[in-house]
Amino acid sequence: MSLLYKKILRHLPDKPYVYLYYLRHQRELLHLKNPRKFTQKIQWLKLYGNLERFSSYADKFTVRSYIEQKVGSEHLVPLLGVWDSFEDIPFNALPEQFVLKVTSGCNYNVICKSKSELDPKKLKTTINGWLGENFYQQERETQYKDCKPKIICEKYLEDETGGLRDYKVWCSQGVPKLVQVDSDRFTSHRSDIFDTHWNKLKHLNASTFGATEAPVTKPKNLQEVLEIASKLSRDFPFVRIDMYIVNQKVYVGELTFTPGSGMVKFETVEANIELGDLIDLDAYKQWQLSSV
């Protein structure tokens, strides 16, 4: 996307922005009168779902109190610090390995496996760039509109793969429906989708990421993962609960209300519609007067 195009697009109101952005990425016109596709319904949520009320649950720091209240602090990734500016980070006091995140967006992460290899100047530029952005403006996901960005530092986690798989549970009306497993996110990203009985649903995979070649083993504590997802999702019409499993312990990373901003590409229209069926737009209409 050209810099000029970005500048022009950024100044547009939400509705024309969303329609143009969707056309550019999906190569089709956006129809929201009676949307059925997942990609369409996510755009409806951005414009009419009143997602601003979910801001504190989309923020990676403020959501921690909700997670603690619902499922207990033992499912929180250990927090090493929280700061308003890069200059406040006490790097000398941090362990050799850690993860830095800016709380008000997606993919604002720095995974540090060796503190001695960090480039402080480059890191400062990156973090300050994220802090200076309003993530909402990028794709008009309104749950980020009122988020106040902070820097958090979390304990470095690693599972048996030598990395960290993401277990993303898609929940509709408080009921877990699907489990998406993302592997090697920062190298050769692979994504697989299973039902809650761990049957692989190849037909639902987005063409954006390929599936893993080797089988993805069913977690021994899958039932615990699903129970945690159920407890955390009951307050929302639709949400994805993103988790990690390390040494059989389940950690909750974040809550995602508009997966992929609805811009992922599916191999078939049928898959797009099947995932769209997880989102009941009437529930959002009824919840306009409700408070989570």
Which structural traits does this protein have?
single chain; 292 residues; alpha+beta; D-amino Acid Aminotransferase, Chain A, domain 1; 2 domains; five-stranded antiparallel sheet; four-stranded antiparallel sheet; 9 strands; globular
Helix/strand layout:
Elements lengths: L2 H8 L3 H13 L11 H11 L6 H4 L4 H9 L7 E5 L14 E5 L6 E4 L7 H12 L4 H4 L11 E5 L10 E7 L2 E9 L6 E6 L26 H12 L4 E9 L2 E8 L12 H8 L4 H6 L6
Antiparallel strand pairs: 1-4, 2-3, 2-4, 5-6, 5-8, 6-7, 8-9
Helix pairs in contact: 3-9
Q: First CA to last CA: what distance? A: 37 Å
- Spatial shape: globular
CATH architecture verdict of the largest domain? 2-Layer Sandwich
Low-confidence segments: none
Strand content: 15-25%
The largest pleated sheet is described as: 5 strands, antiparallel
Average pLDDT, all residues: 92
Report the top-level CATH class of the largest domain: Alpha Beta
Q: In what order do the strands lie side by side in the largest sheet? A: 7-6-5-8-9
Number of domains: 2
Helix % is 25-40%
Strand tally? 9
Radius of gyration: 19 Å
What structural class do helix, strand and pairing data support?
Answer: alpha+beta
CATH domain topology of the largest domain: D-amino Acid Aminotransferase, Chain A, domain 1
Number of helices: 10
- String of helices and strands: HHHHHEEEHHEEEEHEEHH
